[in-house]
Automatic annotation (TrEMBL):
Keyword ATP-binding attributed: yes
Species whose genome carries this gene: Erythranthe guttata
Domain ABC transporter: 589-826
Entries under InterPro entries matching the protein: AAA+_ATPase, ABC2_TM, ABC_transporter-like_ATP-bd, ABC_transporter-like_CS, ABCA, P-loop_NTPase
Molecular function GO labels: ABC-type transporter activity; ATP binding; ATP hydrolysis activity; ATPase-coupled transmembrane transporter activity; lipid transporter activity
Protein name as annotated: ABC transporter domain-containing protein
Highest classification ranks of the organism: Eukaryota, Viridiplantae, Streptophyta, Embryophyta, Tracheophyta
Gene3D superfamilies per UniProt: P-loop containing nucleotide triphosphate hydrolases
GO cellular component assignments: membrane
Protein keywords: ATP-binding, Membrane, Nucleotide-binding, Signal, Transmembrane, Transmembrane helix
Length: 911
C-alpha cells in the first residue's frame, strides 16, 4: 500500500526542502539589498602613483549611515549625558502653558534627614558656568551637566543624542534669553552641527522618600509614548548624609532601558546622575574647584562589519514548526481512515491483536518520520542554512527523535476521539498552523520577556507544540549569534546555561512521550476496543471450562417462563440450558439469553434490538437468520463479532465468552460484513495474503490458500486478482469479502447478506463455496433471499422485532407453517365472483390472500381437497368463462416467512 502511496510520500518529504529553499531565497533577496554601498563602510580610491588605485575604507570616508559598518580601532569619547524628559512629558507645578512655549524646566526631587544639608549639596549640581573652548568642543561640554531627550542605543560608538535633530540640553539654575548656541563637532570627514540650549533645572524639596515615590508614580501612561506624563529628571535621597558620611539613593526613569527582549537593552543614562551627586558633595566639603573626573564614555574597538541577517534563524522557529508539526495530521489521518472504514476492526476480527497493531503502526510512522526529519536536516545543511550547520547535529538528532515519538503518541491519542477523516484533517491542520502562529506571535514574546516567570514558561511548554517551538527558538538564537559573532552555535555544554531552555524542553518532551504513550494505549483499549475502564484489573480465566456458567433459575424450566413461546424456540432454549451444564461440547456457538437494548435519544424510548436469544450451533452447520429490516439480525451479528457489547446474557464461541475473550475468539473467526471493508489501493490477492498471514499461514501453504480462494470466488483469471479493489464492481468486492472470511480455515464464520449485488451465475458459484466450507465449521448467515436460505442453510431461524419466532430446517418450517396449497387464477374482473364461488365449493375454509385486477390468490387447506378435484373444477370453469391463467402450488419458504412475520407483528401490536 505504501509503494502505491510513493508519490504522496515523496511530496511529503520534499516539503521541508521547499521550506528550506524558500528561506534561502528570502536570505539571498535580503542580502542583495544589504549589499548596497550605503550599508557598507565608505571607501575611496587612492592613487598610488603608479597608475594604480588602492581602495581605502574608514570612518573619514563614510557618511553617517556608513559609519556603523566601519572598523573603529579607536572609538570616539562622548560626554556623559542625563536622560532629560521631553517637553510634553515634564512634570510641572502650574499649567501646561510652558509646554506650548517649550520653556518647561526639568524637575529634580530632593529629600533627606537634614534639609539644610540636602539643599546645599543639591545646589552645587548645576552651578558650574558654561565655558566653551572652540579648540576642544567635547571637552568643554563634558565638564557641564548635559542632557538629551533621545532614546539611547545599546552601543556608544556614536551617541544617539549627537545624531538626532534635537538640541543638547545644558542644565542651569537659571537661563537667559540668549542661552542657545551651536557647536560643530568633527566626526571623520563629517561635521556634526549641534544646537545646545539652556534648560532650567528645578530642584524641589520633599519631606520623605515616600512623598517622592508617590509623586513619581501618580501619573498615567500616555498611549502614544508609553511614558508617564509627569516625568522627572531624577530624585535624590541623601538620607542620613552629613559632613562625615555620604549616603545617597538615586531614582531614575528605567523605561528608557528599552529591554523588550527583541534587542539588547539600551545603555541607560545613569552615570552622570551619580557623578553630579558625588561632585556636589565634594564641592560642599572642599569648595567649587573640587571635582571627581568622569567626563567621557567610549566603546570597545570593533572590526569592520557587514549587515547580515540570518533569516533561517530569525524565521526558523515559525517555519520549521510548521514543517515538523505537519507530520501530525499525516499520522492522524491514516489512523482515523482505518477507523472510519472499519479496517482496523476487520483486521482485529481476523486475529490481529492490539499489541501487534500498535507495534507495527508505531514502527511504520516512526520510520516515515525519521526519514522525513533526516531529509529535513540534510536538505537544510546542504543548502547552507546556519540553523543546522552551526548547532551540534547530535542535539538536533536527540531533540527531533524525542519530539516525533511524542507526536506519534499524540496522534494515536487524538485518533481515539475522531471517526471522520474530514473532521480529523481539518482539526489536524488547524493545529499545525495554530501551533506555529501562537508560538511566533504569542509564546515568543513570553520567552523574550525577562520579567515573565520561568514557571509560566514551563507550564506553557507542557503543550507539545510550544515545547517544540522553544527548542527551535533556542537553535535559532544560538545560530543567529554564532553567525553574527563568527562562533559556533549550540553545544552540549551550553545546555547548562541558565538562559538556555533546551535542557528543560528535552526533559519535558521525554516525560510527556512516556505519559502520552500509556494514556493513548489505555484510551485506545477503552474507546476503540470497548473495554471496561478498569479492564486491567480483570482476572484472566484459568481454563475454558470455567467459561460456562449455570443458567439462571428463570431459565431452568419453562414453567417459570411467563411469556408463551413457540415450541421449537422453547426447545432450543432448553437445549442451550443443558449444554451450559456440561464442561465440554461439540457445539461451536452457544448463545444464552443474549439481549441488546439501545438507550433512547431525543425523547425517543429505548429500543430492544435483541430479546433474550438462546441458540446453539454445532460444528458443520450453516444457520440462516431470516427477518424483515430492523428485526435485529445485524445487531446480533455485531454482538457476536465484538463490535457492540450485549446488554445482558452472553454467548460462547469455541468455549470462550464474547464479553471477556474476544481477542482469543478473533483468532478462530471469519467475518463477511454487510458492507465491504477493503483497502482501495490493495489488490484482491494482497488482501488475501494479508489476512492469510493474520491466520498464521505462511510460505507455500499461504500461497496455495490464496490461489484456491481466488479460484473459488472466480477472481483468479483475467488479471482480476491483481487489480486494486477500488476498480472492482460491487459483486467482485462481495466475492472478495467472502473469500477473506474463509481463508485460514476459521472455525466460526459470520456472513451478513453475502450474495448482495451478485449476478445469478456468481451467486450460484458463491453458494457452492459456502456449501463446501460448512463441512468443518459453524456458519451464521443472514439473508433476504429465500432461495439462498433454502439452498445453503441446514437450519433457519426467523427473527422478528428482536425475537426468534421459529427454528428448524426449511422442510420442517414449510410443513409446520405451510399446511395449505396456494391456488391462483386470473380472469376478467367481471368473473371474480364466480372464481370465488368455485374455490368455496372446493374448500369451505379457503382464505383469500390476494386480489387485484382479476387475479386472485387463495390458500386451500390440504386436508380438505384433492389435486384431481382442483383440475376438474378448473376444466368445468373454462366452459363457462374465460380463464386467462391459473396455478396450484405448494407453500414456499417465502410464504412461511411472510406468515410468521405477520403473525409476530400482530402479536406485538396486541401486546
Amino acid at each position: 500500500m505504501q509503494k502505491r502511496n510513493m508519490e504522496m510520500n515523496i511530496r511529503l518529504i520534499l516539503f521541508p526542502l521547499f521550506i528550506c529553499l524558500l528561506l534561502v531565497l528570502i536570505q539571498k533577496t535580503v542580502n542583495s539589498q544589504l549589499d548596497k554601498p550605503s550599508l557598507r563602510c565608505g571607501c575611496i580610491c587612492v592613487d598610488t602613483g603608479k597608475g594604480q588605485c588602492e581602495k581605502t575604507c574608514g570612518i573619514e570616508y563614510s557618511s553617517l549611515d556608513q559609519v556603523f559598518f566601519c572598523p573603529i580601532p579607536h572609538p570616539t569619547e562622548w560626554p556623559l549625558l542625563l536622560q532629560v524628559p521631553a517637553q510634553q512629558f515634564r512634570a510641572v507645578r502650574t499649567g501646561d502653558r510652558c509646554k506650548k512655549t517649550g520653556s518647561c524646566p526639568v524637575t529634580m526631587l530632593i529629600t533627606g534627614n537634614n534639609q539644610t544639608f540636602g539643599q546645599s549639596v543639591a545646589g552645587n549640581m548645576f552651578s558650574r558656568p558654561l565655558n566653551v573652548n572652540s579648540s576642544d568642543i567635547l571637552q568643554s561640554l563634558a565638564d557641564n551637566a548635559l542632557g538629551s531627550g533621545t532614546t539611547s542605543r545599546y552601543t556608544n560608538f556614536i551617541d544617539a543624542a549627537f545624531l538626532s535633530n534635537a538640541p543638547i540640553d545644558l542644565l542651569q539654575p537659571q537661563c537667559s534669553s540668549d542661552s542657545q548656541f551651536s557647536v560643530a563637532i568633527q566626526l571623520g570627514s563629517a561635521t556634526l552641527q549641534k544646537d545646545v540650549r539652556c534648560t532650567q533645572g528645578l530642584q524641589l524639596w520633599r519631606n520623605s522618600s515616600a512623598e517622592i515615590n508617590d509623586e513619581i508614580y501618580k501619573g498615567y501612561r500616555n498611549g502614544n509614548s508609553g511614558r508617564k506624563i509627569n516625568e522627572i529628571l531624577a530624585a535624590y535621597d541623601f538620607a542620613n548624609s552629613n559632613e562625615n558620611l555620604f549616603n545617597v539613593t538615586i531614582w531614575y526613569n528605567s523605561t528608557y532601558k528599552n529591554d523588550t527582549g527583541d534587542q539588547p537593552p539600551a545603555l541607560i543614562r545613569v552615570p552622570r546622575s551619580i557623578n553630579l551627586a558625588s561632585n556636589a558633595y565634594l564641592q560642599f566639603l572642599l569648595g567649587p574647584s573640587a571635582k571627581m573626573l568622569f567626563e567621557f564614555v567610549k566603546e570597545m574597538p570593533k572590526p569592520e562589519t557587514n549587515l547580515r541577517l540570518d533569516f533561517s534563524s530569525l524565521l526558523g522557529p515559525l517555519f520549521f514548526t510548521w514543517v515538523i508539526v505537519q507530520l501530525f495530521p499525516v499520522v492522524l489521518i491514516s489512523l482515523v481512515y482505518e477507523k472510519e472504514h472499519k479496517l482496523r476492526v476487520m483486521m482485529k476480527m481476523h486475529g490481529l491483536g492490539d499489541g501487534p497493531y500498535w507495534m507495527i503502526s508505531y514502527a511504520y510512522f516512526l520510520a516515515i518520520s525519521s526519514v522525513y526529519m533526516l531529509c529535513f536536516v540534510v536538505f537544510g545543511s546542504a543548502i547552507g542554512l546556519n540553523f543546522f550547520r552551526l548547532n551540534d547535529y547530535s542535539i538536533h538528532f536527540v531533540f527531533y527523535f524525542l519530539y516525533i515519538n511524542l507526536q506519534i503518541c499524540l496522534a494515536f491519542l487524538v485518533a481515539d476521539w475522531f471517526s471522520s477523516v474530514k473532521t480529523a484533517t481539518v482539526v489536524g491542520y488547524m493545529m499545525v498552523f495554530g501551533t506555529g502562529l501562537l508560538g511566533g506571535f504569542l509564546f515568543q514574546f513570553f520567552l523574550q520577556d525577562s520579567s515573565f516567570p520561568k514557571a509560566g514558561i514551563i507550564a506553557m511548554e507542557l503543550f507539545p507544540g510550544f515545547s517544540l517551538y522553544r527548542g527551535l527558538y533556542e537553535f535559532s538564537q544560538y545560530a543567529f549569534t554564532g553567525n553574527f559573532m563568527g562562533s559556533d552555535g549550540m553545544r552540549w555544554k551550553d545546555l547548562n546555561d541558565s538562559n538556555n531552555g533546551m535542557r528543560e524542553v528535552l526533559v519535558i518532551i521525554a516525560i510527556e512521550w512516556l505519559v502520552v504513550l500509556c494514556v493513548a494505549y489505555y484510551a485506545d483499549q477503552v474507546v476503540s476496543s470497548g473495554k471496561s475502564p478498569l479492564f486491567f484489573l480483570r482476572k484472566q480465566q484459568k481454563n475454558l471450562s470455567s467459561s460456562f456458567r449455570k443458567p439462571s433459575p428463570r431459565r431452568l424450566g419453562s414453567k417459570l417462563f411467563v411469556q408463551m413461546e413457540k415450541f421449537d424456540v422453547d426447545q432450543e432454549r432448553e437445549k442451550v440450558e443443558q449444554l451450559l451444564l456440561v464442561s465440554s461440547t461439540s457445539h461451536s456457538i452457544i448463545c444464552n439469553n443474549l439481549k441488546k437494548i439501545y438507550p433512547g435519544t431525543d425523547g425517543n424510548p429505548e429500543k430492544c434490538a435483541v430479546r433474550e436469544l438462546s441458540l446453539a450451533l454445532p460444528e458443520g452447520e450453516c444457520f440462516g437468520m431470516l427477518g424483515p429490516n430492523g428485526a435485529g439480525k445485524t445487531s446480533f451479528i455485531n454482538m457476536m463479532i465484538g463490535l457492540i457489547k450485549p446488554s445482558s446474557g452472553t454467548a460462547y464461541v469455541q468455549g470462550l465468552d464474547i464479553r471477556t475473550d474476544m481477542d482469543k475468539i478473533y483468532t478462530s473467526m471469519g467475518v463477511c460484513p454487510q458492507h465491504d471493508l477493503l483497502w482501495d489501493t490493495l489488490t484482491g490477492r494482497e488482501h488475501l495474503f494479508f489476512y492469510g498471514r493474520l491466520k498464521n499461514l505462511n510460505g507455500a501453504a499461504l500461497t496455495h490458500a490464496v490461489e484456491e480462494s481466488l479460484k473459488s470466488v472466480n477472481l483468479f483469471h483475467g488479471g482480476v486478482a491483481d487489480k486494486q479493489s477500488r476498480k472492482y464492481s460491487g459483486g467482485m468486492k462481495r466475492r472478495l469479502s467472502v473469500a477473506i472470511s474463509l481463508i485460514g480455515d476459521p472455525k466460526v464464520v459470520y456472513m451478513d447478506e453475502p450474495s448482495t449485488g451478485l449476478d445469478p451465475a456468481s451467486r450460484n458459484m458463491l453458494w457452492d463455496v459456502v456449501k463446501r466450507a460448512k463441512q468443518n465449521r459453524a456458519i451464521i448467515l443472514t439473508t433476504h433471499s429465500m432461495e439462498e436460505a433454502e439452498h445453503l442453510c441446514d437450519r433457519l431461524g426467523i427473527f422478528v422485532d428482536g425475537s426468534l419466532q421459529c427454528v428448524g430446517n426449511p422442510k420442517e418450517l414449510k410443513a409446520r407453517y405451510g399446511g395449505s396449497y396456494v391456488f391462483t387464477m386470473t380472469t376478467s374482473p367481471t368473473h371474480e365472483e364466480e372464481v370465488e364461488n368455485l374455490v368455496n365449493q372446493l374448500s369451505p375454509n379457503a382464505t383469500k390472500v390476494y386480489q387485484i385486477s382479476g387475479t386472485q390468490k387463495f390458500e386451500l387447506p390440504k386436508d380438505e381437497i384433492r389435486i384431481a378435484d382442483v383440475f376438474e373444477a378448473v376444466e368445468n370453469a373454462k366452459s363457462r368463462f374465460t380463464v386467462q391463467a391459473w396455478g396450484l402450488a405448494d407453500t414456499t419458504l417465502e410464504d412461511v416467512f411472510i406468515k410468521v412475520a405477520r403473525g409476530a407483528q400482530a402479536d406485538t401490536t396486541l401486546s
